[in-house]
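thought: fold this chain, then report.
action: predict
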Amino acid sequence: MENSIVKRYIVATIGLIIVAFGVALSLKSNLGTAPVSCPPAVLNLKFTHISVGTFTWMMHIVFILSQLIILRKKFKLSFLMQLPAAFVFGYLCDACIWLIQGIEVTSYAMQMVFCILTVIVTAIGVRMEIVGNAWMLAGEKIVAVISDVTGMKFNNVKIIFDILLVVLSALFAQLVFGVLFGDGVHVVIREGTLILAVFTGLCMKVTDPWVDKFLHKVFKFKV
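observation:
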């Protein structure tokens, strides 16, 4: 029996919550956040009255408009489901950031622990998003669109796209704060960014089977 749409959205939404919690953990680590979260994080350092989550859904809207420009008549109405997903994910990020705001990270060892936790949490959340196959996040969809149009492999486009996001964020930080990695106090780009970019996918090779077993046991979800 196929998974019902309600069940798929439940699983995918839990995945979104977990990924959003990963964003909050990465910011708390102050070792650098994932490439796709670099632009919202660095913009928030300058425009503090606008939350990271708000900048996140604004960035996703830019991604959606980019897809529309690239695809034109081939842009499907179903792709507009990325809009509610962007808002939901953005405000989930804000909620998770608020939830752990009272935690103090006082040493490099703690920073690294938070960074490793981010890798594991993100790997679990992404897997749940994938198997749920309900919410459509623009950060991944724009990469898929570029891959389809250019004929390049998805993974290669993803690497180039992530590098571009990090470079643009670093240039903005350098222009505004005179520091490539953040504002001099809060770190957006550092070793944590590289760790998240490289090891999240590797971690999924370990966590995916466990996540699939959990979903099948708890939700009777067919993976």
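thought: worth noting. Residues 62 and 138 are 9 Å apart (CA to CA).
final: tokens above.
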